[in-house]
Each structure stands twice: as C-alpha cells, then as structure tokens.
Design goal:
The protein is α/β, with parallel strands linked by helices and 272 residues long. It contains eight helices and twelve strands. A seven-stranded mixed sheet has the order 8-7-6-9-10-11-12.
C-alpha cells in the first residue's frame, strides 16, 4: 500500500500539474493523478487529512469525508455512471467545499441541496450524467450556463475542458469566483451575465451545458455551438421537464435526443 503522511497542505490544480512527483494520495484533485480504480485497489480512499489554507480560512478533507466520497462514487457507478474519468473527477473534488460547513453531512448524499439565492447544487448523479453525456475531450471549449456553487465547472475543468461559466445572480457569481480562486482554479473563466445571451465573444463552443431549465431551448445558445458540438439542456416547466442532447449537424441543422425526465430550477432572463 501507498505510504502517506499524516497531513498535507493542499496545492491548487495548476501547481499539481506542474509537478511530476506529487504523491497521488495526498491532497490530489486532478483525476489524471489519482484514479478511483487505484483508490479501490490500494485502499487510499481514507488517506491523510488534507488541509488547504485559503483566503476564507481552511478547507479540510478528512478521513471521514474521503470515506463518504468513496461510498458516493460507488453508488454512482451502481446507478449507471460508466465513464471512469467522470467518477475520478467526483472522487478527486471534495463536494463539501461547495456547501456551507454546517451541512457537510449532506455533501455526499445523492441529493440536490439548496444553496444561496434560492438556487441548488445539483444531485451528484445528475452532475455525473450531464457530464458523461457531454462526451468531454481534452481541450474542449465548454460553456456552462448557471455557475451556481462552481462544482460543475470544476468537474468539467478536471476532465481537461476550457471552461467558461456564466451566472446571472451577482451574489453567486462573486461567491463562486472567490471560492474557485481560493481553491486554485483560476483557469476557470466565470462571468456575470444573462445566460440566455451566452458568451458571443467567446463562441463557438465545442460543448454547452445548461444547469437550469428554460421553457424552450434558447436559439442564441444554439448558434454559439460548433458544428458537431453537443448541448445538454433540461427543457420545460417544473412538473414536465425533459433532458435533451442536441448535436449540431450543420450550419442550420440540429439533432435532438430525449434523455429522460429531470427537475431543475427554472432558467430566468436578465441579471440581478
């Protein structure tokens, strides 16, 4: 089994990528460094306590929290998540960093959870499934509509995507931007703006993921998708939402697939 030290200072992902000698059992967040398959094989899921001293104090990833995260990943696999890269990302990214410290017990339940401004952090299975459907490849330019806590953006980043995330609620935008900078995710681009407008100055995108439900697919966002690009979006009213996978097959042509019934907060226009 891998030898581990008692504690380790958490290094941001940029610093980790710069080193070829970092111990994958210690404070790793990059799935290319620690696969969940290796965690199960070598028994390092409940490794040493990892402490990150940031601008807002300390983020701590304890033996207990690692154990809960290991159980969550196993649960997601049983529920049908097949992409090991997605499971690795969920294993490597402590979800409790994205909730108030008082609710860390809820971080590894497969449930959505309310965050500030009457928004939610999506159920882990939904995060994993939307990500899997996107078919992320290294270097993909991805637009996320609805930053929320920033958790989904970090999962996409860990898969090697160039992430551009837009949030309409200024308070959430500021909180998430600060959190991601604190955690070392400065490479993730976060914007305050109207999700219906997208980011025309950054378009076109290889992939687009929408984490709130519009009544119909915004045509502006369809136009910002590359040919052969993929959009994953829940569409409809609260009681009748369906997830769609939309592939742009030509300059004016799109193929739509219904992926199942889901429930998201409604996608609103404008900013506040």
């Amino acid at each position: 089994p891998l030898a581990v030290r008692e504690t380790a200072m958490y290094r941001g992902p940029s610093e980790q990528r710069a080193s070829d000698h970092s111990d994958p059992a210690i404070g790793g967040v990059t799935p290319r460094k620690t696969s969940f398959e290796k965690v199960e094989r070598e028994g390092i899921a409940c490794g040493e306590s990892c402490i990150f001293a940031g601008m807002e104090g300390q983020f701590q990833d304890t033996y207990r929290q690692k154990g809960m995260r290991k159980r969550l990943v196993k649960e997601l696999r049983k529920k049908g998540i097949q992409d090991e890269r997605v499971l690795d990302a969920i294993w490597n990214l402590p979800r409790h960093y994205f909730l108030d410290i008082a609710f860390d017990e809820w971080a590894y339940k497969d449930q959505a959870f309310r965050i500030d401004c009457e928004q939610t952090i999506s159920q882990p299975f939904t995060v994993a499934k939307q990500t899997e459907w996107l078919e992320i490849e290294e270097g993909d330019k991805v637009l996320e509509v609805g930053t929320g806590s920033g958790y989904q953006a970090c999962i996409l980043h860990l898969l090697g995507a160039e992430v551009h995330s837009i949030e309409r609620i200024e308070q959430l935008y500021k909180q998430s931007k600060k959190r991601l900078e604190t955690l070392g995710y400065e490479e993730i681009n976060i914007y305050h703006g109207d999700g219906y407008e997208g980011l025309p100055n950054e378009a076109p995108f290889d992939k687009i993921i929408i984490t709130a439900a519009p009544p119909e697919v915004p045509s502006t966002l369809l136009q910002q998708l590359k040919v052969e690009g993929i959009m994953i979006v829940p569409v409809g009213a609260n009681s009748d939402q369906k997830m769609y996978k939309i592939t742009r097959t030509g300059p004016k042509n799109y193929r739509r697939e219904v992926l199942g019934a889901y429930r998201f907060v409604p996608m609103k226009k404008g900013t506040n």
